[in-house]
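Our collaborator T.R. sent over the components below with a one-line note: 'Predict the complex.' Nothing else. No constraints on interfaces, no templates requested, no preferences about which chain binds where. So this is a plain run: every listed entity goes in together, and whatever single assembly comes back becomes the starting point for the next discussion.
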Amino acid sequence: MTSLDHFLITGRFSLPSSSLLLSNIDARTMERVKQLAGHFRPTGLAALERKNPDDVVVTMAIRSPLCKARKGGFRDARTDELLLEMYKHSIAQSKIDPKLVGDICVGTVLTSDAMYAARSAALAAGFPETTPVQVVNRFCSSGLMAVSTIANQIRSGAIEVGLAVGVESMSENPDKGGPEQSELISCNPASRDCKERMGWTSENVAVEFNVTREEQDAFAAESFQKAERAQNLGYFKDEIVPFAVFQKDPKTGEKRQVIVTEDDGIRHGTTKEGLGKIRPAFPQWGNSTTTGGNASQITDGAAAVLLMTRRKAEELGLTILAKYVITTVAGLAPRIMGIGPIYAIPKALSLAGITIDDVDLFEINEAFASQCVYCIKALKLPVEKTYLSPLLRATGARQVATGLNELHRRKGKVLVTSMCIGTGMGAAAVFLRE
Amino acid sequence: MSLPRAPPALLHTPGFAHYSLAWSPFHTTRLALASSANFGLVGNGRLHLVSVHPGPNGMQNITLDKYYETQDGLYDVAWSEIHENQLVTASGDGSIRMWDVVLNDLPIRVWQEHSREVFSVDWSNIKKDTFASSSWDGMIKLWLPDRPRSVLTMQAHHSCVYQALFSPHQPDLLASCSTDGTLKIFDLRTQTYAPPTGGINTNFATPLTAAVLTVPASTTEVLSIDWNKYKPFVLASAGVDKMAKVWDCRMIKLGEVGQVDGRQHLHQAEYSTSTIHTQSSLLDVAGHSTRMESWQAVVGMDV
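Returned assembly:
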């Protein structure tokens, strides 16, 4: 009775359970291991790779061409016009109804009355009155702070979809350095350093950390060559949207609309030797190693990043470019603000629970060759994994667009994008390509 | 009152890790262990029968009386509430086996209806002729020991059901928890199918049994539940999120129920909570410790 029952199967299958098991053992075991493995909270990269409906994801990252201030394609464009173009392209490329955008955050530094421009341009571009706008400013990282602000709003449940924008016209709003300080503040040396020019901080880094003019020129030349190659190979095509802006005829002063499609700050055929001949830009400070050739240009440009929950992206049927993981900001002495990434990158990696080895692409702003050379040295970043963004301003959101595009091209997984911030900070963010 | 405690009685079953254990409701000295080789991932199972007797100096003696071999891992065990010598086991091959402790080697009954791992069996202590099983195939089944087939099948979830437990107060209520992050309560008197939820009707082939209550208990898997034996409608859940949560099912308001942050109390165990047991005011939570073969009761907390 008992032995008969042992082989008696009362279910749908007419085979004894033992042979059923044997025929399926591999598939069953794999299924079981997979199910049970899910009980263990993964750590490191595996934890980041888990997909959750609550994840904040990027579904669009685009930028304008980046143009030399006062001489380039956007020399006669106003900030609100750049914003208008950026918004219009965002609506066109987002593949979503603009009324779904729960909030817009614009990062900009020098724009006076930025809030007026940000809101009015959004309405003119076709965002409905129901979509609010705010402005953030943390100098070079402002665009990234806009991304981080929107991502945190999504994470907290305040909004489901948000647009982060970065914009700067240094043609319209030149950087005049810090304003006068109260004597109650300027008596503190570090406070006094805050209002100093960025060039001064570059020379400080070069002196304190022994970065020579040769190193800087070699680095800058390589950087230009890389950018030239990337431009020639059309690497930027996927991230740049053409901007229709006004330009004034230099002779007649007549205003006409032109379409700008390419970065115009990349100097083709740059060599280390050529850069070596350029006069120091700041003869009054340090070893005077910083020149117009090994420092970033001043730039006009804009970028936009659309973020939402994974749930919403899937509901809308959008392609997910990347998962937003974390943004962090670190502080350091204002006099050497350029090396902020040295503090921000390890902090971001530790918050994300990963190590330098997990990262496929590091993107650091290249405000000055001095800070960049030292950041790479100090963090021991592998050169083949480091990608530099040789531009000042329009940095934060734009680096996200460029970084994700480059990560995609390299078929990498993890992007860490980082920049130094005037007055002594560094920001870093981690993204995971889908 | 800090008298030195006697060391715990120990029993080691080399090669077989324990997934579950149960005291006999008839004999205070009898304990059954559901065990699996290779931590239940692959390989054989064993049902160990153990006696616990008082020894000298307040010590407990624990002895292995016998064991039964099975061809797949055993994940749960439940004693019969009507027959002192009988008990059922839940197995990885989808089978449920009934054993009689006076017989050797082979089960007295085998039921093979579940198509995936059976992860829990629970004997009703009110309707003492009935027991329930839950499986990774998403089903809960009800069984009578003398029937060759299950008497009721419910498609409780669309993913793994880790546990199904009868209410200790009401014979027709059954709670379940699942990979889908929900805790559900089913009333056996009102058997209907749930209406399809928006969009494409995936319900057609495998219609979901309607639950009287569905609690979105976690964003990750809920691995274990228990009814409070003294307060009807109070349930505790625990799972991969490392949180032990207590639910009063008469008034589920998300965010307002007593939530115990398991992360603080589980020694920051890197692994998920896996068994849970409630008394009137004590909640015992056990988790996978760094060695999966040892199970660690970590905390007693007021709820």
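Summary for T.R.: Chain A touches chain B through 31 residues (CB under 8 Å).
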